[in-house]
Amino acid sequence: MIPENMDNLSPAVREFDDEYVEVEVSEAQPLLSSADTDAPKTTFSSFSFREWGILVMLALANLFSIVAYSCIAPFYPKEAKTKGLSDFEIGLTFGIFELVIFLGSPIAGKLGILQTCGGIGFSLGPFLGGMLYDLGGFRLPFYSLGMAMFCMAFLSRFLIPVDLDIKQEESKQSTGYIGLLRVPTIWIMLFALFNVAVSTSFINPAMAGHLESFHLSSTVVGLLFLVSGVCYSVTAPLNGLLVDRYKCHLIGMLFAPIAIIISLSLTGPSPFLPLQKSVPLVLVGQIIFGAGLSTLQIPVYRNGLDAAENAGYASGTVTYGLVSGLFEAVYSLGSFIGPIGGGLINQYYGFARTVTVISGFHLCFVVIFSVFYAYKKCRRKGVDNDV
Fold first, then answer.
1. Where does the Major facilitator superfamily (MFS) profile domain lie (predicted)?
2. DSSP class of 269
């Protein structure tokens, strides 16, 4: 029987009750101090040794996976043609890789540093593949990259924890990919990225065949591929500085497609130009091509993020993942269509006419981009005048 009066309790029971009241915790009081919780790490200097290992392993895995795909560009088309494959079938071989990435990108998203390593791998792969092919024949590039990927998989078993306590950021204002596709600016940026992907993915399988008449070694062909990658890497930091500090988004996106059109027309050369195919023309074309790609691709991502935030998406890693995943999917779709569609046109009409068709896509973008932003500027002026 429970006594109604607390005074009737024994001294031992009253002492226990007093102790219980003293340790009672308010709902508003956190059970753990802020010192006991893991603060989010926003700089590389705060990474532990294990976290550095995970980052380096993931970056190298992404690098090697792209190198394994792009390394076959200098020698595979020639080997495939000796086996009776057409240009369309060769392009299909290159395109399947990107089709799988297209299907997985909206789910996975991508870290910026991993994307950078992927770009380096795409540029470095043809040179490494050509060099390994000259050293050890057809099988050596595949054996070498296979062993490198196996080493990365082995390291991941020990570096990546089984359970990662990842706190997802929630954005009440965002509505996922459907909301992004309702933003007109996003579509403009996706069209630009699609054109970039089609251009680069067609050049990879077709360039080696285009250069066959010069009787160059696979290493030299790989070096010609590397030229555009070096120019991309050199101009990318400068373009990033111009975009971040001086907000030169629109100027770069207007002139970069024109530079790509010039580069493709020289590499062909285009039937509209009174030029003969030569290695110096290809070299100059690849230099302009790499610089044009970086000038176009960097503002695309920045404009996409700004457009998403202006549409109500919260600034943070969730929005970055959505935009990056969508853009990576469209890039992979373009990389799937480029070698297949380009290979089909190349098979019947030749390399020069194919690059002219691709240049037409970039010209369409310049027209659409100019009209769209001229309309936005006029509309903004009209609103200011009304106010």
1. 185-387
2. T
Report helix, strand and coil shares of the chain as percent, to nearest 5.
75, 0, 25
Omega of the bond prior to 269 within 30 degrees of 0, cis?
Answer: yes
Closest by Cα among 197, 221, 194, 205 to 339: 205
Say how far apart CA 19 and CA 9 lie, in whole Å: 15
How far apart CA 247 and CA 232 sit, in angstroms, is 20
- CA 197 and chain centroid, separation: 10
Q: Which amino acid is at 250?
A: L
> How many C-beta atoms lie closer than 10 Å to residue 345's C-beta?
21
Taking each helix axis from N to C end, the angle separating 279-310 and 249-267, rounded to the nearest 10 degrees, works out to 150
- Fold of the 47-157+175-386 domain: Growth Hormone; Chain: A; (1.20.1250)
Q: Please tell me the distance from the alpha carbon of residue 323 to that of residue 311, in angstroms, as a whole number.
A: 12
> Each residue of 231-278: pLDDT tens digit?
887 887 787 777 777 776 778 888 899 999 999 999 989 899 888 989
DSSP string, 89-136: HHHHHHHHHHHHHHHHHHHH---HHHHHHHHHHHHHHHHHHHHHHHHH
